[in-house]
Design brief:
Strand order of the largest sheet: 4-5-6-3-7
Number of helices: 7
Number of strands: 11
Oligomer: single chain
Radius of gyration: 22 Å
Order of helices and strands: EHHEEEEHEHEEEEEHHH
Strand content: 15-25%
Largest sheet: 5 strands, antiparallel
């Protein structure tokens, strides 16, 4: 297929398999793509008969074995009537992400990678309710309230456990030098994906969106088209995080552990005391 310009809008693991020696000679920045690392971060949704709003935002469970995060969806979709679209059966959706697929779960003793879809469902629900309903006081977090559930379709059960068709780019130390810009050294090739070097600097839809804007701008500039370029925004972080970032930077220079690791160890110690 011949065209004036090409945009490679592929995930990093797919693009790595397409980078040839000829491409890297023409665009040396593409050589680092194969060095970028991915990990599993996939989700499961619980469709609830009655909504359980939880917090107004994301929940993070830092001491959960499978590194869970979750969000209660319905509270953010006021104009979307779930019950009207599900014959009245579903009142809320609890979306959960599993970020650690290698640590055994406390309920079944198996890492998520080795579980069946049903075992993943049961283990995730157990870890969630252990964190959110410790005293059995929160209504709605019961098996009776689950209408249905759905595992990420990128996950497929095999004889040896789960297979993941959509691993996620992970920002590891030194990985920035391996991430190419959207406007490659090849005059008519641009990149649009979450591994591209962006202000967002994270594997997410916002990062992919920014990369696509940069790819469009590269084509606009190189083709000489008279039009306004896409807006590319800076990443603005809340000022409230600045003291913590400065503390982390100082601890790193002194060779001390991350503050989060210290708090995690303290939390484990307190729980051991409580069980003693």
């Amino acid at each position: 297929m011949e065209a004036d310009y090409y945009v490679a809008a592929l995930p990093v693991e797919a693009m790595a398999g397409l980078v040839t020696d000829d491409l890297t000679r023409a665009a040396p920045s593409l050589a680092g793509i194969e060095k970028l690392e991915t990990a599993w971060m996939n989700g499961i949704q619980f469709f609830l008969k009655d909504d359980v709003p939880l917090a107004h935002g994301h929940q993070i469970y830092p001491d959960s074995a499978w590194a869970l995060t979750s969000i209660s969806q319905q509270q953010f979709w006021d104009a979307y009537d779930l019950r009207a679209r599900t014959d009245g059966a579903v009142g809320g959706v609890l979306s959960v992400i599993v970020s650690d697929w290698n640590t055994p779960g406390p309920a079944n003793g198996k890492p998520a990678k080795e579980c069946s879809p049903e075992e993943i469902r049961d283990e995730v629900w157990t870890q969630l309710t252990d964190h959110l309903d410790r005293n059995h006081e929160r209504e709605g977090l019961t098996e009776d309230n689950i209408y249905d559930w759905a595992l990420d379709p990128a996950l497929n059960a095999t004889e040896n456990g789960m297979d993941n068709g959509e691993p996620l780019l992970v920002n590891t130390v030194g990985s920035l030098s391996h991430r190419p810009a959207a406007d490659t050294e090849i005059e008519n090739l641009a990149l649009a994906a979450d591994y591209v070097r962006t202000n967002t600097d994270l594997a997410c839809m916002e990062g992919a969106n920014e990369a696509a804007r940069r790819a469009a701008n590269a084509i606009i500039e190189r083709s000489g088209v008279r039009t306004e370029p896409c807006e590319v925004r800076d990443l603005v972080e809340p000022a409230v995080f600045e003291p913590s970032k400065r503390q982390d930077e100082l601890r790193y220079r002194l060779g001390l552990p991350h503050p989060g690791e210290v708090r995690k160890d303290a939390s484990r110690f307190v729980r051991r005391l409580a069980r003693a």
